Amino acid sequence: MFNPTHAIVPYFPPPRILSCTPSHLPIDAAHSSEMHTVSAHSSLAFLPQAHHNAFAMQKIPVEVFPSSQDAVAKLAAETAELIRSNEAAGKQTVLGLATGGTPIAYYKELIRLHKEDGLSFANVTSFNLDEYAGLPQDHVESYWYFMHQNLFNHIDIKPENINLPSGTVADADIPAHCAEYEQKIKDAGGIDLQILGIGRTGHIGFNEPGSPKDSLTRAIELDPITREDAAPAFGGLDNVPTAAITMGCGTILAARRIVLMAWGEGKAPIVNEAVTGPVNDIVSASYLQEHANSVFYIDQAAASKLEA
Ligand code: PGA
Fold first, then answer.
1. Is the CB of 197 under 6 A from ligand 1?
2. According to the model, what pLDDT value does residue 45 have?
């Protein structure tokens, strides 16, 4: 039905260079209980030359928080500041939003800021990353439904400013629908802040292994691991859609700032791969290594396999 670009590429990871632990830091500094920033870009400048590869394995700035609640509180505060400063300048804020278990607490915090702190979303335009193919908006597992249940129904965003790809466009019309989605993002001035989760396949949005760095919004076949992870919500694997419409990696990388969230031990291996591994189409989150303003906000369990 679709023509997903789902290249099967043999994967031969390059040899890893082991890093050393700088002598002035405790051995487990990267796993201390306090929130800290571990950044290949910012943490190294002050270190003596000999220690320059101390954090060389980490090629994306990573903030490890004591808990996911601490992380979402910071991200929601940042989001509120962005919205308010754009509003003061008479500008719309364009948010790129994600679905899944990961961002739910972030959305709860945004709702709290709206209800208790007067944060208005009247000047916000949103673009969601993806939607399951074949699911109408009122399907309880559609991302349209998810976003309304978990965020939009509880804030003052204007319905006309909400954008998600449609899961029910006829196959023949999908390319035009995707091109229109790209154009809408451009017309809105591009995405100011893109929120991401990460799948066990390393996908951002539904950019499964094989997704090119410059890919745009398109139909894609879901990876078996992704479908397996979705099976409980759908009451069994057979009910999980086999395809989706997703923003491409290129669409995501065009955002001015990108924050990827990950919680729990289950995400630890893929977080480490994205942050320290090679940049390639096997793990689409690895492309974030080449973005000038991307950061991972993760809890300690998700950081438990992070190589320094
Ligand atoms: P999750 O999914 O938030 O439900 O873990 C993340 C993703 O697949 O991108």
1. yes
2. 35
